[in-house]
Amino acid sequence: MGQEGAAKEKAAKENRVLTGVHFMQGNYAVVEGALAAGCNFFAGYPITPANEISEGMSKRLPAVGGVFLQGEDELCSINAVAGASLAGAKAMTATASAGYDYFQEGLEYGVAVEAPMVIVDVQRCRGENFATQADIMQVHWGPAGDHEMVVLAPSSVQELFDFTVRAFNLAEEYRTPVIVLSETTIALMRERLVIPEEDKIPVVNRRWTSKTPETYLPFEAEEWGVPDFAGLGRGYHTIYSINPHDEKGSIEWDPDVFQRLYTRIPAKISKHREKISTVQHYRMDDAKTALVAYGSEVRPCLDAMTMLREGGKKVGVLKLDVPWPFPEEAVSDLGKRMDLVVTVEMNTGKYAGEIERACSGRCRTGRVTKNRGLIHSPEEILEALECMGEVS
After folding, report:
1. Is residue 227, in this structure, part of any structural domain at all?
2. Is residue 209 part of a domain?
3. pLDDT digits (tens, 9 = 90+) for 248-276
């Protein structure tokens, strides 16, 4: 590389937002999304197929004034992220399915102390880098205790960028851990990525308290509200404990304190579910059969929809951008309007039960599921629909 090329590369590394059109791998799109959202701390431990996220952050984050920490393991990484968040950083970590197992206690802590943080889970089959969506229930129910997780499920390289930005915004707005549920398929593929101008990227920053240390209550909020924040080292002496705590942060073993805390913390997410749990509709206006999918499985569903439409079938796709909290209203509406609702997912049939519950027996339901390390093909979806009988 000549001097001019080296200078251009150095200048690019020093730009936080790489505005323009790129042909980029999915994991690197996560890196760029995090930087565009204002991430200034990353801790991670190597694991395939998420390694490019750590590798990319190790190069890009220090170049824009952030801190990169190579953790000795996943426990170090998740707890370092929690600590950095409480100190005021926009913090992120990334792992793959096996590593995500080790994150659960750190996530439980993040929920309990209401620490904004972003966790990327690149799903893979157990021990191998084959495609799966088998983590879909763990990312919701993994941490102990009452909670409501926010989980975003991108289906393209562009969405890996966009959803990472949104994950940081949701984490900051609701003071909560947010999961970006990636997959081997999209993490390692390369696609067109458009990064907007910096001032065109919506960024939510933390809401800092205006109260003095003497009057500030770190966990004071409305019934399902979000407390204002005061970071560590700023003169506000807060106990951030995983134990039940009152509005002051003092550990309090009292049933009334339990109830207030474990009602408000899940409710600050669930009460705003319709705003958070966005969906996208494809050809749903006249549809009588709906394919429901999240993540990379949306892609073959759209192809199958096109093929069925060409054959005169009124089929649409409901894409779940945010599978958790569960988009109850959007899915329940399918039960009222559709003749058939089919869940397509890359596991043995986990999220399908939620879809069927929300449809409440008001329409026929079906499942197209497998866990073979491969995404469904459109032809597999068509074949499965034929086995279900008449498709409107």
Report:
1. no
2. no
3. 999 999 999 989 988 999 999 999 999 99
Distance CA 183, CA 129 (A): 10
Q: What type of residue sits at position 234?
A: R
Output the CA–CA distances (angstroms, integers) from residue 215 to 114, 221, 246, in the order listed.
20, 14, 15
- Token pair 């990319």 is found at 56
**Domain limits at 51?**
10-200
Q: What is the DSSP string of 265-328?
A: HHHHHHTTHHHHS-EEEES-SS-SEEEEE-GGGHHHHHHHHHHHHHTT--EEEEEES--BS--H
- Of the three residues 200, 227, 255, the one that is the final residue of a domain is 200
DSSP letter (8 states) at residue 90: -
Cα separation, 335 vs 149, whole angstroms:
25
Residue 270 carries which side chain, given as an amino acid letter? S
Residue 231 in domain: no
Q: Specify the CATH number for the domain of residue 383.
A: 3.40.50.920
* Best mean pLDDT range from 230-239, 257-266, 346-355: 346-355
